[in-house]
Amino acid sequence: MHAALDGAPFLRNIKFPSTDAELVTKSELFSKGQRNPLRGCVSAIDGLALRIQRPRVTDLPDLMASWTRKGFVAINVQAAVGADFNVQLLSAVTAGSCHDSTALATSGLAAVLGAERLLPEGLWVATDDAYVAGRRVLTPWAGKNLPWDKDSFNYWHSSSRTFAEQVFGQIVGRWGISQRPLRCPLAVCSKILRVAVKMDN
Predict the structure, then answer these.
(1) Rounded-to-integer distance, Cα 62 and Cα 85, Å
(2) Measured between alpha carbons, how far is 193 from 172 in angstroms, rounded to an integer?
(3) 122's torsion region: left (phi>0), alpha (psi -120 to 50) or beta?
(4) pLDDT tens, per residue, the chain with 201 residues
(5) 40: Cβ–Cβ under 8 A, 6 or more apart, which residues?
(6) Confidence (pTM)
(7) Pairing status of strand 137-138 against strand 124-126
(8) Burial 77-93 (b: 16+ CB within 10 A, else e)
(9) In what side-by-side order are the strands of the sheet with 87-95?
(10) Is residue 168 a contact partner of residue 76, using CB atoms and an 8 Å limit?
(11) Which residues contact 76 (CB under 8 A, 6 or more apart)?
């Protein structure tokens, strides 16, 4: 495993594929079941606003940092998910008001992908348009009424991204504790999420 991916905020028991064999296996899963013509996707990355109760001033002096645009207090959770519905990366270290692309950069994975040290040529991760596109991070084409080739790309790209959304739905649906604001200190909220993801995997 790459040094930047070993340890906090990553979990050692939730592992992003790092060997060539693992990467090839993960990429084959994305195109196999759906007959997706986009080859090389190894992971889908998305964010989730995990609701929390209003923290104490001693825990979080700046409450507005955790206030989301949807009107509740939350932690911005970033997760990378494989086509086997296993979470490969989990980061819950940024406040709810943090933009997804900033939260991903804080997690450390964006820097590794940007430096092209983790993924060989031709392999990539799928994200939505909230993230910054790069050679290893593919986002959909922006706009409406796109030409057929760009529209087709967006369709198949979306098919890859849905794995992350489905896993978030499974975690929230399976573990009822995350269906309402978590009423515990910030550090404990993060641990609860990690345990739920570990059991879901």
Answers:
(1) 35
(2) 10
(3) left
(4) 344 444 444 445 577 777 888 888 888 888 776 678 888 889 999 988 888 877 666 566 566 666 677 777 888 888 889 888 889 888 887 877 788 888 888 877 776 666 556 778 888 999 998 888 888 888 999 988 899 999 999 998 998 888 888 988 888 888 777 777 788 777 788 888 888 888 887
(5) 27, 122, 123, 124
(6) 0.80
(7) parallel
(8) bbbbbbbeebbbbbbbb
(9) 87-95, 74-81, 41-51, 124-126, 137-138
(10) no
(11) 47, 48, 49, 50, 92, 94, 95, 96, 97, 98, 100, 103
CB count, 10 Å around CB of 5?
A: 18
Q: What tokens appear for 60 in the block?
A: 């979080």
Q: Give the containing element (helix H, strand E) for 93.
A: strand 87-95
Is residue 9 reached through a cis peptide bond, with omega within 30 degrees of 0 on the bond before it?
Answer: yes
Amino acid at 96: G
